Amino acid sequence: MSQPTSRSWLDDLPPAFQAYRNGRRLDEVECIIPDLNGMSRGKAMPLKNFSPDKPIFLPISIFYQTITGQDVEMDIANQWAESDMVLVPDMSTAMAVPWAKQPTLQIIHDLQGFDGKPIFCAPRNILKHVIGLYEQHGWKPVVAPELEFYLTRPNIDPNEPIQPPVGRSGRSGTALQSYSMTAVDEYGPVIDAIYDYAEAAGLHIDSVIQEDGAGQVEFNLTHGDPLLLADQVFYFKRIIKEAALNNGMFATFMAKPMRDQPGSAMHVHQSVVDIASGNNIFSDDKGNATDLFRHYIGGTQRHLIEVMPLIAPNVNSYRRFESEANSSAPTNTAWGYDNRATGLRVPHSGAQDRRLENRVIGVDTNPYLSIAASLACGYLGMVNKIEPGAPAEGELDDEQQAQSYIPTTFDEALRIFEGAEAVHQVLGGDFCQLYAEVKKEELRQFHREISPWEREHLLLNV
């Protein structure tokens, strides 16, 4: 009598991966983590070398590097002792790498020390911590991100400006084509590849639209748990970039890749439900807005400028907030009902779907950190009962704009962030110190550069 075959962890992988694998031999496993900028880091290994129970290690110095790879020195004990972090796979995040030539699995890992405690600066741990603060009050936050990005011609020389892509018609894209189905069809092969990759990975796209800019596309994701949606944004950025590359284009999540085109945002819709009942705490039994909703708005208004380095994390991020033509980005923390001129919008909805849309967040953010920062603002509003200003109607006048301004430079944003004590308490003081130092070093590197504009207009004219 034959013995039953022992069950493997491979048998518990999601149905989407099993369909993608289709009986083929699994070739490789990618063990990945998001760094401070939301980039994928980690290790790839043959299947035989991976087990969910086998420790994997990476040095903590990954989090002490700028986006250029420059090391940042800080007054923290044993910073350069290269102490390792333990990678713990979250098997619920296991999914296909659809662009790989052979069946490949990717898994997001959590990070902890040898004592089992979460690594203080790991972005996924920061978001988990904020979600935990909500849970202590019996609350569960819900988010729905909207991702804007540009498809462009391949940009090989960084000194050359980025150009819109050439579509199936053989012509470059033009701006101001919002919601145009023809414009979306121009890049049909790339969009189809994104859908195919997403299906193989088990990810769901709620809708796709053409945004204002030439080659600018928006994907909307279904609402859900903040950690799950941050994981999906993290994965989608990889998917979109690979789909574009495999179709002769670049996909960029720069906030403002082209001077005369609109910037790209990651609008995040936010609501909170009561864990016990499942009801939206922003609405009462009669369907009216609650004090908690009002305070959530108030906290977001008060603290949003303090978390700007997390929701607008690069020098380029602040180009998106320019007030010139072709910029649809809000430049304020005002709020209003279905008012897209405000940074904080309350969309039309039923009572159970009452929510706040944060329209200030850029798509160039680390999704774990930007979602955590936005939720932290609302959390502080609810626990401290912060009252919001009056809702804005239509375009803001000069006085309203001045009262609800947001920093327009990275320098100013970092100065405000460093003094934001309440925010530091929620996100973690050590993390905020590290993040600020990394971003200040990136800013110093930027200011040392000489731009093409300076060479063009100052070289021979001053």
UniProtKB/TrEMBL annotation:
Give the matching SUPFAM superfamilies: Glutamine synthetase, N-terminal domain, Glutamine synthetase/guanido kinase
Q: Which residues form the GS catalytic domain?
A: 123-462
**A family per Pfam:** Gln-synt_C
Keywords in UniProt for this one? Ligase, Magnesium
PROSITE patterns recorded:
GLNA_ATP, GS_CATALYTIC
Which cofactor is recorded for it? Mg(2+)
Family to which the UniProt record says this protein belongs: Belongs to the glutamine synthetase family.
Q: What is this protein called?
A: Glutamine synthetase
